[in-house]
Design brief:
137 residues; mainly alpha; two-stranded antiparallel sheet; 5 helices; elongated
Amino acid sequence: MHDDMPSGASTPPATISTSKTTITDKSYFRRIRSRIRSWPGGALALKIVVGVLGTALILAGLLLVPLPGPGWAIVFAGLALLAVEFAWARRLLRRARRLVSLGTHWFGRRHWALRYGSGALLAALLAAGVAVGVWML
């Protein structure tokens, strides 16, 4: 058992065990990316694959935003995937995280009636949107 592990844990947090060694997530994925980039045409192929998958995730998430479910989470997952290869996506993701954090803290400081009232209003609007969608079918 490792010294830096919480009591009762059998493996260190955020690690991947391979047959050769146990390494952290970031170094593992960095090695994979550097190995792919070392191949002829690998850097371009990686950019294309990450771009296509990230864009597909963002588009799928945007389609799911009006529905109940993880629409925004999927959008941010697609943006995080794009941030692996594109600097503009890293900057946008950093800004989005900051804005979400600021909004969450601001909203958390409001009176409980405003917080619960806003949640109830959002739920009512969502239910109305689903009802209209079902009615139009």
